[in-house]
Amino acid sequence: YATGSEFSFTTEDLFWDSQKKMLSTKSVVRIERDDFILTGRGLEYSSETGLATILSEARLTLRPKTDGKE
């Protein structure tokens, strides 16, 4: 489990490849922010590019705005 200033990230295990500077897992992942929930199986994240890829079963659920404005 990890929490950033704008998100939380949950998975059972996470591996760091120091040569490729990549985080990866084959487990179920869940990323939450105020405006969405992203789930899937497997993840690769490049610390050099800042790009993350959900490897399979990706599902995005959008949340309605909660700022009180319509």
Which features does this protein show?
single chain, 70 residues, mainly beta, six-stranded antiparallel β-sheet
Write up this protein:
The structure is a single chain. The chain contains no helices and six strands. With 70 residues, the protein is an all-beta fold. The mean pLDDT is 89.
Write the layout of secondary structure elements.
Elements: E1 2-3, E2 8-11, E3 15-17, E4 22-32, E5 36-46, E6 52-62
Antiparallel strand pairs: 1-2, 2-4, 3-4, 4-5, 5-6
- Which regions are unreliable across 5 or more consecutive residues at pLDDT < 50? none
Class from helix and strand fractions: mainly beta
The proportion of strand residues reads over 45%
Could you tell me the mean pLDDT? 89
Quick one: overall form? globular
Summarize the structure.
This protein is mostly beta strands and about 70 residues long. It is about 0% helix and about 60% strand.
